[in-house]
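Much of the work behind modern protein science is quiet bookkeeping, done one molecule at a time. The fold becomes a row of whole numbers, each drawn from a learned catalogue of backbone shapes. The protein below has been through that process, and both of its lines are reproduced in full.
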Amino acid sequence: MKNPSKIWTELQAQKAVVLAKIASSSNDNNKLRNLTEWIRRELDWESKYAGIFSEAERLITEQQGKSVEETNGSSKITANMKAEEKWNFDDLSKQERVKVARRSYLKRLEESNILCEQIKGKTIYRKKNDGVVFGVTFSIDKESKHWFLGLPEKSFQEAVLLCQSGSQSAKVIHLKKEFCEKFARHLSVDKNGQVKFNILRDGNKWLIEIPQPIGVKDITDSVESNELVCVRHDFEFA
């Protein structure tokens, strides 16, 4: 049996080859389907591989019994004790998750002096400083590799996609006006009039699947560097 690290290196090399083939196969639907299916299987394996190491790290930490003390005024509590008191997305209903993530994102904009007003439903807003209309949507994926999101058709100039990345956090993908003007019309629309965003994570790369003839696009540059740390307030669900 080959060394696991060597297998991993060879797999990454093959993945790079396949991604290059995808980029050059926009006119061959049959070939593109086969290549995309290979990428899906590879990402699934990567997720399982990452899960094994994550569990190993958890077991090591559990035995080491490490706890980082934090000072809160004159009292100290351990990070482990603090974690037990926290909520996570799994505790919330689908509607509550979306509300917490959306309000946390809008709060972050407000803290950066970007004020917004709600103009349609619960997802469409306008920035008061420049008038740009944007939609905010959220999706959860326990394996953090594939997210499905939607926004009302013909209602936004920009799209903010909040992809859950941790128990209380989300990656922010901001598809700006130029991107939406070029590609939004090529995205699928369901029977409820929702534009569908199909997001994939491939290691450090973020991709969006757009129906043919566009295909898979790299949107890594649209991912904000700072994760969104979500805050839940009990009064929101009273």
